[in-house]
């Protein structure tokens, strides 16, 4: 590792050590719907406990917002409108040196591009509680709301524990620690049965297989597969792949780090861990690693741990690390 990258990483960490901190935690179980999940609210509750106990976040309305299906306050329920307002709350009013944290645990999907844009492909999105009436929140909007609107010098750390989340914020760098999984144009499934098996395996077990097959046209429209990211060049000396996205993407490098549960064309598991309960696989892997190491872990080891957890539990999802600027992968995972 070049020394200048190590020094940059240390200076980068120090710059955010004394700033103000804000966290937005979103867990959606979709209780009572055909696509109900079980571990999402618990995911963000565990993260909240870690942030308050070990990372200096304060459980006050000014510093931390917890959104869930059953939130006592109406504006803390993760509807489309409330999520948009919460993203604005997180990003605005910050100054250089501040640290922001976002954890989303829920469904991720893919949707067709809007007719009034130049895009003719699908794009990833997150699924609000009231998606049936309001639709999803697409990656382009998330980029504008969370990356473009982020002041320079403010750090944003994001965990996306959801399907199709590999490049959810459309950041310019995706870290590739080995050549075993080089970045390539995203694949589409070869047949319907593979899709059905994947969906059932990742938390949609309440849906009977026969019903799912009968309604496959509707499900395909809601959860199609992505083919948005086009490879351009190789992996650089730090292991980062430079991404190029269609659409109006902010070219300014921002201090944004995202750990996501899977690649864009994969799904993420809602699972059960003995002695822990229902949880998202990525959320458990991250929180358990942070607790085991006393909160001191670097990007590379955290990503490696999350990927190994999937392998050990026979899950095919591959957690991803993407950034708004090149970050030394051996640097401390601070937020």
UniProtKB/TrEMBL annotation:
<protein>
    <recommendedName>
        <fullName>Peptidase C14 caspase domain-containing protein</fullName>
    </recommendedName>
</protein>
<comment type="similarity">
    <text>Belongs to the peptidase C14B family.</text>
</comment>
<dbReference type="GO" id="GO:0005737">
    <property type="term" value="C:cytoplasm"/>
</dbReference>
<dbReference type="InterPro" id="IPR050452">
    <property type="entry name" value="Metacaspase"/>
</dbReference>
<dbReference type="InterPro" id="IPR011600">
    <property type="entry name" value="Pept_C14_caspase"/>
</dbReference>
<feature type="domain" description="Peptidase C14 caspase">
    <location>
        <begin position="21"/>
        <end position="324"/>
    </location>
</feature>
<dbReference type="GO" id="GO:0006508">
    <property type="term" value="P:proteolysis"/>
</dbReference>
<dbReference type="GO" id="GO:0004197">
    <property type="term" value="F:cysteine-type endopeptidase activity"/>
</dbReference>
<dbReference type="Pfam" id="PF00656">
    <property type="entry name" value="Peptidase_C14"/>
</dbReference>
């Amino acid at each position: 590792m070049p020394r200048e990258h190590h020094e940059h990483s240390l200076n980068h960490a120090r710059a955010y050590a004394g700033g103000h901190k804000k966290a937005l935690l979103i867990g959606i179980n979709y209780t009572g719907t055909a696509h109900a999940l079980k571990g999402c609210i618990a995911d963000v509750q565990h993260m909240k406990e870690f942030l308050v106990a070990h990372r200096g976040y304060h459980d006050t309305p000014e510093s931390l917002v917890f959104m869930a299906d059953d939130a006592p306050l109406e504006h803390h329920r993760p509807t489309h409108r409330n999520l948009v307002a919460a993203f604005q709350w997180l990003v605005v009013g910050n100054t250089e040196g501040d640290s922001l944290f976002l954890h989303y645990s829920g469904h991720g999907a893919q949707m067709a591009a809007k007719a009034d844009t130049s895009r003719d492909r699908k794009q990833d999105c997150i699924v609000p509680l009231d998606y049936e009436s309001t639709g999803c929140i697409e990656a382009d909007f998330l980029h504008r709301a969370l990356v473009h609107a982020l002041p320079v010098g403010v750090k944003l750390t994001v965990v996306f524990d959801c399907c199709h989340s590999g490049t959810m914020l459309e950041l310019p760098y995706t870290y590739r620690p080995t050549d075993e999984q080089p970045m390539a144009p995203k694949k589409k499934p070869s047949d319907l049965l593979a899709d059905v098996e994947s969906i059932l395996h990742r938390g949609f077990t309440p849906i009977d297989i026969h019903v799912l097959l009968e309604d496959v046209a509707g499900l395909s429209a809601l959860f199609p597969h992505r083919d948005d990211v086009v490879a351009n060049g190789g992996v650089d000396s730090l292991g980062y792949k430079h991404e190029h996205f269609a659409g109006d993407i902010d070219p300014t490098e921002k201090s944004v780090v995202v750990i996501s549960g899977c690649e864009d064309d994969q799904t993420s598991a809602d699972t059960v861990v003995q002695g822990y309960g229902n949880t998202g696989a990525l959320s458990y892997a991250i929180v358990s690693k942070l607790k085991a190491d006393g909160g001191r872990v670097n990007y590379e080891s955290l990503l490696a741990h999350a990927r190994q957890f999937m392998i050990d539990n026979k899950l095919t999802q591959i957690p991803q690390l993407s950034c708004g600027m090149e970050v030394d992968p051996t640097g401390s995972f601070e937020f």
